Amino acid sequence: MNTEMASSSGGTGSTDPSAPRRHSKRPKYSRFTQQELPACKPILTPQWVISAFTLISFIFIPIGVASLLASRNVVEIVYRYETDCIPINLRGDKVGYIQSTLDKNCIKMITVPKRMKHPIYVYYQLDNFYQNHRRYVKSRSDTQLRDKKKENDTSSCEPEESNGGSPIVPCGLVAWSLFNDTYSFSIKNEPLAVNKNDISWKSDRDSKFGKDVFPKNFQNGTLKGGATLNESIPLSKQEDLIVWMRTAALPTFRKLYGRIEVDLQANEVINVTLENNYNTYSFNGKKKLVLSTTSWLGGKNDFLGIAYLTVGGLCFFLALSFTVVYLVKPRKLGDPSYLSWNRNPAGH
Amino acid sequence: MELQQGNSKTVSVPGDSSSAVNKSQRIRNKSVQFDDNYVSGENPRLIYVNDPRKTNDKYEFTGNEITTSKYTVISFLPKNLFIQFHRVAYLYFLAIAVLNQLPPLAVFGRTVSLFPLLFVLCVTAVKDGYEDWRRHNSDRKENNHESLVLQSGQFQMKVWKKIRAGEVVRVRVNETIPCDMVLLATSDPSGVAYIQTMNLDGESNLKTRYARQETTTLSLFDVNGGTAVSGLIRCEQPNRNIYEFTANMEFNRQKFPLSQSNIILRGCQLKNTEWVIGVVVYAGQETKAMLNSAASPSKRSRLESYMNRETLWLSVFLFVMCAVVATGMGLWLERHKKQLDTLPYYRKIYFTNGSNNRKTYKFYGLVMEIFFSFLSSIIVFQIMIPISLYITMELVRLGQSYFMIEDKQMYDSSSDSRFQCRSLNINEDLGQIRYVFSDKTGTLTQNKMEFRRATVYGKNYGNSLHVADQSLEEASITEVVERNRWKLKSEINVDIELVELLHKDLAGNERIAAHEFFLTLAACNTVIPIVTQCSSSSSTMSELDEPVGSIDYQGESPDEQALVSAASAYGYTLIERTSGHIVIDVNGEKQRLDVLGLHEFDSVRKRMSVVVRYPDNSVKVLVKGADTSMFNILAKEVRKSDQNEDPVTDDVRYITQSHVTEYSLQGLRTLAVASRNLTDEELEEWQCSYKEAGTSLTDRSTKLRHTASLIECDLNLLGATGVEDKLQDGVPEAIESLRQAGMKVWVLTGDKQETAISIGLSCKLLTPEMHQIVINGNSENECRNLLAEARIKYGVKTADYRSKNLKRKKNVENEYLEIPDDITTSKASERHPVKVSILNNTPLALIIDGNSLVYILEKDLEIDLFELATACKVVLCCRVAPLQKAGIVDLIKSRTDDMTLAIGDGANDVSMIQMADVGVGISGQEGRQAVMASDFAMGQFRFLKRLLLVHGHWNYHRVGYLVLYNFYRNAVFVLMLFWYILSTAFSTTSALTDWSSMFYSVIYTSVPTIVVGILDKNLSHKTLLKFPKLYCAGHRQESYNMQLFWLTMADTLWQSLVVFYIPFFIYKDSSIDIWSLGSLWTISVVVLVNIHLAMDIQRWVFITHAATWGSILITYICMVIVDSIPVFPNYWTIYHLARSATYWLTILLITVLALLPRFIFKVMYQIFWPSDIQIAREAEILRRRRPKHLKTKVDKESS
Q1: What pTM value is reported for the model?
Q2: R_g of chain B, CA atoms, integer Å
Q3: Of B755, B784, B910, B944, nearest to B847 (Cα)?
Q4: Hey, is the C-beta of B829 within 8 angstroms of any chain A C-beta?
Q5: Same domain, B1150 and B1022
Q6: Which residues of A are less than 8 Å from B416 in CB distance?
Q7: Helix axis angle, B1006-1015 relative to B387-406, nearest 10°?
Q8: Residues B1186 and B1155 placed together within one structural domain of the fold
Q9: I need a surface site. Which of B319, B457, B653, B1132 has the fewest CB within 10 A?
Q10: Which of B78, B112, B146 is the last residue of a domain?
Q11: Which family does it belong to (chain A) (predicted)?
């Protein structure tokens, strides 16, 4: 009975209007199932290739020029001081000096090379400091920083999780190693104010660092890692800490110290009083003080502009050379005589 | 399938002495089908009829409860996990997760690292659990069916699961049979029962089973009288061969044999029989149906094994990277040895005032630190080994299969069957097939037999049949038809001359021969007539005394059905068949013939015979069989004894033989028909032997063969028949396309040489100008000589050269083989004079027969055959046994790297289908054995063209690209992490958040690859079908090869450097924090890999757009979500970044610069070295845009 049914349905095909044998397994037609959906099928025609390259070069070259100009407009003063700030006679044992209780103040002069418009950002830059070291990055407790009730949540903070049985707030190696050099500026004995407010991310202050969380038991260990914190100020207001806790991505990094809200004129001499407290000597780390203006692209960095110009130029060159190639040796697209079986078999 | 396959469907021929022993043993080990051991009399199973207790006394046989489910509630978890962890991928996942739990190595958050593994495990477990729950349900349903079982003298309902071996069960019409039972009695007094074996082998026609005469009457009486029945059955141990059953039975002190025709199997249905009574011999899991439910062995695709080779390379990269990190770590620690105590980020001991004061902190010594850093870098770089690729590939193949199944053009309306993907692992293999091995009958041909020609007593009939003008002959035909009271399902044209002869009086040799000829056709078979009375049509012919009946012939062999129908058309209608007698309506006159014995068809004798007693008490043996086997056993002394009486007798033989040759040249299947009177002595001798052979448990087939030879001798030739086996639609075109596509089509058939050649010609496999090399030797030496001769004559190269050559890449060599037969052929061969194995450019065809293969495949001649065969354009193997088919496939498979495909429809093709790289089953008329064993199944041979040229091509290119892209996608990510680790004091820090690392290959970039892997098409199906040679791209491995892998890796290296160093230099002296830079890297790499993919997509549909651009969007969404959770240190990062112009410019720069080399390379390649696919693609797309006159020009050129 099966064969009978099949043959009759086969004979009349799908046009068979009689409904009873409608349980056919015939696939239903749809453009989707037959893989015939409307589609765009790009091919690399010469016009396409050349215009793509031209387009890229036309976009990239202006961007390159713009960013290079922006970068060139940024005025940046970098002053390296980790060696300068050690008295010459003590430079033989830098680590011993930094760990001693000697006076660490040092006063230096910086000349402003070009006019600097406010705001002028004051950064400290550390070299060879692996803030991105896995053990270092992980040695913090974000729950503890946020929430007063979670102050015992220090399991990830080893080896700085507790001291004398009670938890350290903020715990962990990151907080422990908080940078503690300080800078103060003056021009012609007029103190130059450094605004240390709003140097950290607002989001961090609002949500990551608790307003009711106060430092506790901090830097009470045998070995002090860095700065101490005022225990009466909540973490959300400890902006240096907040900046520091945004650990850097690369071993050479800058961190915002403050802002100078006045313009500096060219050839002005700034007196900088540095308090050289932070021990980078044990790992040969450099310390730099950076004063920099900013552009729409950020700080001074020619790389972006140069890269854009290079790529744009290269694409322009490619557009030209492909034009030449297509003119000199055109290949008719879709010409069947190029098919391997139509070509000389030896040529393959 | 084969000539007169009839009852000989057994796939292996156990006693076939001529089959190659070594070879078959080898194959037996390889394929499931053959590793049954046919238990002989050594250890029979004893069944005491109606005494289950005694039956199960010594050894508890399995009850009838079946469990197809794998798990119970308790065993689910451990067992499921155990099964799941058989996959290497999961073990890798687990190892990584465990590593991550070790405190010094916790690179990722501990829970995060468990997430992917748990996810995959849960999904699979839920899926498995659901499937198993459904199996439980169906098992429960099945086990709680009820049947009538003889219990304390009465038939009472009993649930199936309680039925035990030895019990007597009564099954009513249309009920399913609960277990394997030996028939004791049926409602039919002669003990016939009809069953449908649809569930078992898919065949819808009815099959006859018999209860032994000895038990029929007795048990009937006993059961009705309520007396206990008893008896003893000795049968073989359970096995899965559904076509064989060997047992004997002791019943009332009588001993008699039981065979396959006496057993009914679980899962079959009883039809047309009111009831049967049987005794349970195998129950539950031991039934043949359950033993057969094992799946066919899974295959692995070629591309996947190449992929594994490249995965090894990736692990080498992984190892190198980890080693670099570990070494760097060691050096760094060594250099900073003295500072370790004071370094802020690396402290050796505690400095806190507490219990831990000055204890060692997390420093395990230099060696251990190096070791740990090695391990933790493995964790960070884990996705270098693209585990997700395996899952992706499975999904992609699933999608591809969906589209193959849904393809309307692979739907066969005549059998209402769709394309089926039974194996999900080898879709891409379809794009690289080199050799196609095809069965003939049912595959190339329709297996719908039509009676065409007959030669009776030396006279040829049916010549004018096809030209016969119906109107002219109509009068006489209608006369005949009208007299014929039996309506058949199919119309048959008759030869008027022959009809007239049959209506003469029964006198004269020719007339008698014709009578016996048709009697034999009607009687000597295993066809069952099913008579249905239809009263409505009888009204018009009321003058006839009997109502018109319609007859449906149910038989296992289409040849036999055709012959019986033909006999009926000529007035010899078979209307009743039982095991004891046959009733034939001879022109309105019913004749009852007692059947004394029947020798079924087997592949050694190649004939069948039946011994009948006529109403006038004379006994005759009627034989029909393959002409080669028949002409040897004809009466030789005809001329001597009957010289005077009948001078033509001997001529009949030669005339018939010439007719037979003529028929086979026309492509007809021929059978010779002969008969012989038996004397009483002969009869007696035969009956003794027959009985003895029938009751023996061991070697029954040999003994029966011996018995048959007693009477199958000195026969009188009556004539021969020619049955047409029609070609399926589109076969010649399909074969031509496959050949153009560089595939070699070999036909392996059980038919004889002439038939094979004629079919070869009609399906354009052979062309008249081909040189035919025929190898049919009867001994090893003969074969050796024939092979050597052919090789010298046609200049086939010597062994060492070839075998050396073969081990290398075969690309170049193969190219010449596929060059079309036009001008290029000669050109090509001139250019490659060494490579061409053909002397005079004529294509060669090798025709070899099964006998020769016995000698060749077994001996060291294999290589000779291989060389000769590969040099030939066409190979036809005729009269091959099933195992030889597999042997030939193995011949190619073991000696070359080429992909093989076997296509067939019958049980005899199963071995070949399982042996080949890709097995395709035709869901035709010969049951479902082939389909069950196959990887793909379809309704028609011609779909093969579409399957390979279109879907194979697509799938190959899709999967090839998919694999390369996935390697790239993961490697570029890992390398990016690697460069970063170099600037973190080798501390295996990842700038990316844990979530980004985990989501990267799961969410951010996975969907587009899957979509592209399923939907991308480089060429439309029209183009692919029009230029079959485009298929050769698959042969040349254009989409996936070592070179491409290394190129991709070089590109990956460049791209990873760009992705890492551009942000590195841009943000070098800035106050950027680790999470911002990580966020930038994440989005850069996601954009990069997605644009990279977009550059390679050939066909953009809206789904592709959605997937590609959606992935980038989803990445952003995920990052925004993760960055909005205050407890993560990366809180609010993305908001800060998105505000700066540098961020966006960096992403743009990275994308352009990273992809520039790839793009240039691509453009250059397309200008200077365009691939065939590229050109065809351009032609296809540009043609639509071009004006019409150009279009036609292109068409002309291309054709």
Answers
A1: 0.79
A2: 37
A3: B755
A4: no
A5: yes
A6: 5-6, 9-10, 24-26
A7: 30
A8: no
A9: B319
A10: B146
A11: Belongs to the CDC50/LEM3 family.
The reply to whether B1028 touches chain A by the CB within 8 Å rule is no
Q: B885 among the known binding-site residues?
A: yes
Confirm whether B372 is domain-assigned.
no
Please say if B439 is a catalytic residue. yes
- Its domain, for residue B248, covers 163-293
pLDDT in tens, B125-167: 887 888 888 888 888 888 888 888 887 777 888 888 888 888 8
Provide the angle, in degrees to the nearest 10, between the axes of the packed helices B953-982 and B302-335: 0
Q: E-strand spans in chain A?
A: 76-80, 105-111, 120-126, 162-163, 166-167, 182-187, 190-192, 194-195, 253-260, 269-275, 287-292
Query: Residue A321: its chain B contacts at CB < 8 A?
Result: none
Cβ of B345 and A10 within 8 Å? Answer: no
Any A CB within 8 A of B657 CB:
no
Q: Is A306's Cβ below 8 Å from some Cβ in B?
A: no
Q: How far apart are CA A339 and CA B1175, in angstroms?
A: 7
Closest chain A residue to the Cα of B1017, Cα to Cα: A35
Q: Residue B1078 domain-assigned?
A: yes
The DSSP result for B1096-1131, as a single string, is H-S-B-HHHHHHHHHHHHHHHHHHHHHHT-TTSTTT
Yes or no, beta carbons of A133 and B1177 under 8 Å apart: no
Residue B658 token pair: 């010439």
> Any idea what the CATH number is for the domain that residue B169 is in?
2.70.150.10
Q: Residue B176: beta bridge partners?
A: B269
Give the up-direction half-sphere exposure of residue B1078: CA atoms within 13 A in the CB hemisphere.
26
**ipTM value of the model?**
0.92
At position B36, the amino acid (one-letter code) is: D
Among B567-571, B786-790, B814-818, B898-902, the minimum mean pLDDT is found in B814-818
What residues 1165-1184 of chain B have any CB closer than 8 A to a CB of chain A?
A: 1166-1167, 1170, 1172, 1175-1183
A223 touches chain B (CB under 8 A): yes
Would the pLDDT of B809 be above 50? no
Check whether residue B627 and residue B766 sit in a common domain: no
CB contact under 8 A, B345 and A135: yes
The reply to whether B669 sits in an annotated binding site is yes
My answer on whether B220 and B237 are in the same domain is yes
DSSP alpha helices (H): ranges in B570-637?
627-631
Please report the DSSP string for B868-894 in residue order: HHHHSSEEEEES--HHHHHHHHHHHHH
Which of the residues B16, B36, B412, B439 is marked catalytic?
B439
Instruction: Find out whether B441 is annotated in a ligand binding site.
Output: yes
Q: Among A198, A338, A348, pick the best mutation site for testing chain B contact (most B Cβ within 10 A).
A: A338
A273-307 pLDDT tens trace? 999 999 888 888 899 999 999 999 888 889 999 99
State whether B657 and B764 are in the same domain. no
CA atoms within 13 A on the CB side of A281: 21
Contact B1067 A249 (CB under 8 A): yes
Select from B347, B1142, B1170 the Cβ nearest to the Cβ of A331: B1170
Among B339, B372, B416, B1032, the strongest candidate for a mutation testing the A interface, having the largest count of A CBs within 10 A, is B416
- Mutate: best of A51, A68, A134, A300, partner B, most B CBs <10 A: A134
Supply B665's token pair.
Answer: 């040249």
